[in-house]
């Protein structure tokens, strides 16, 4: 594994974790008495789904990659740009992402985990199209998400809600930049 690939996977993990970070900040804001064990449960659930969904997407991408091999880089770029744009729009909105909810209720926790992991499913789909091995990126994505979620709950006790919106915007920019990198690499390789 090259250093460039490691950095790309790390940035991807960071970009994908911003939704989980924002949700975790909300948990910290709403549940300022959150205990370490409870925070660990929330973070583990978010990380598990964030790491599992790319595998599902990758399996789907691997199955259909031959059908779309000539345009796979455009699809990967489009999907990442769409997700990144959605995150930026959500970050710009001022409406209440901090609804009163109980993140420790199993149905709420699983719902939050799935909702914050849909973008990871799409990224996994892109990996399948591009024939990128999935194990290392999944480990990075899961680890980064766990750390981001733990930090988010800690920060949620101490920072304003505005910061969680800014984190979504930054995460969206990172995902769009990775999509542009994938597109540029493939267009450059085709031209060479």
Automatic annotation (TrEMBL):
It is found in: Cell membrane. The keyword Nucleus does not apply. One of its GO terms (cellular component) is plasma membrane. Its main location: membrane. PANTHER family: MANGANESE EFFLUX PUMP MNTP-RELATED. Belongs to the MntP (TC 9.B.29) family. This is Putative manganese efflux pump MntP. It comes from Draconibacterium halophilum. The lineage of its organism: Bacteria, Pseudomonadati, Bacteroidota, Bacteroidia, Marinilabiliales.
